[in-house]
Design goal:
Structural class: alpha/beta
Keywords: DNA-binding, Phosphoprotein, Two-component regulatory system
Organism: Streptomyces rugosispiralis
Distance between the termini: 40 Å
Low-confidence stretches: 1-8, 130-136
Radius of gyration: 19 Å
Helix content: 25-40%
Strand content: 15-25%
Strand order of the largest sheet: 2-1-3-4-5
InterPro entries: CheY-like_superfamily, OmpR/PhoB-type_DNA-bd, Sig_transdc_resp-reg_receiver, WalR-like, WH-like_DNA-bd_sf
Number of helices: 8
Mean pLDDT: 85
Protein name: Response regulator transcription factor
Shape: elongated
Order of helices and strands: EHEHEHEHEHEEEEHEHHEE
Pfam families: Response_reg, Trans_reg_C
Length: 244
């Protein structure tokens, strides 16, 4: 579920056990028109997520009752369209990658400024899925069919479940088959033209997209022709036709 555009309609579930940070972020979000529910542990945060839909989850990794990575993974499985932004004091690259791979859309290292957090939220919410545009937005390459109007992906006769950013990344590439698409172009179209976050977000999302498509191809009851997501080192990515 996504908000309709005005920021005062955006609902935020904030999962953070630190009282000082919690009060500061809650007050900052409310002062900018966001509706905030603050949970102080992973279990209570998951319970709140189940009680009512949210547009955004701000998630601390260092929670008292469970690891935030596990919370992110469960949130993504149960609420595939929610925007998950991790707030973490863990700045090692492996922790960031693990969080993104668990289903988070972005991360912000502590300490952070409220202005940067608000800018990140605005950037992501500007990129929320557009309304369906019509039947001419169906593209087929090999046995892969991408319907950007319905936001659905099929491999052969089976639907492939993709996360929002995975689908948007694939949708950009299928519109430019066999063309080199730069990292900068992909970040601008899938995330935001003013994006200033880590570009490793793109690499993690691409790796996850590849795994899902390859798993779907392996599980298909008959052989399928799967296009190839080619890495262009130092430039970006290209979607190539299936190998003969």
């Amino acid at each position: 579920m996504w908000a309709t555009g005005a920021k005062d309609t955006v609902s935020v579930l904030f999962i953070e056990d630190d009282e000082v940070i919690g009060r500061h972020v809650e007050a900052g979000l409310r002062s900018h028109g966001y509706a905030v529910t603050w949970a102080r542990a992973g279990g209570s945060g998951l319970a709140e997520a189940g009680r009512s839909p949210n547009d955004v989850v701000l998630l601390d990794l260092g929670l008292p009752d469970m690891d935030g990575i596990d919370v992110a993974r469960q949130l993504r499985n149960e609420h595939p369209d929610v925007l998950i932004l991790i707030l973490t004091a863990r700045s090692e690259e492996i922790d960031v990658i693990e969080g993104l791979d668990a289903g988070a859309d972005d991360y912000l290292a502590k300490p952070f400024s409220m202005n940067v957090l608000l800018a990140r939220l605005r950037a992501h919410l500007r990129r929320r899925p557009p309304a369906p545009a019509g039947p001419d937005e169906l593209v087929r390459i090999g046995d892969l069919t991408v319907d950007t109007a319905a936001r659905r992906c099929h491999l052969g006769d089976r639907e492939v479940e993709l996360r929002p950013k995975e689908f948007e990344l694939l949708a950009v590439l299928v519109r430019h088959p066999e063309e080199a698409v730069s990292r900068e172009s992909l970040m601008a179209e899938v995330w935001d033209e003013n994006w200033f976050g880590p570009t490793k977000t793109l690499d993690v999302t691409m790796s996850s997209l590849r795994r899902r498509l390859q798993a779907a191809a392996s599980d298909a009851p008959v052989p399928v022709a799967l296009p190839v997501l080619t890495t262009l080192r130092g430039h970006g990515y290209r979607l190539d036709p299936p190998k003969p």
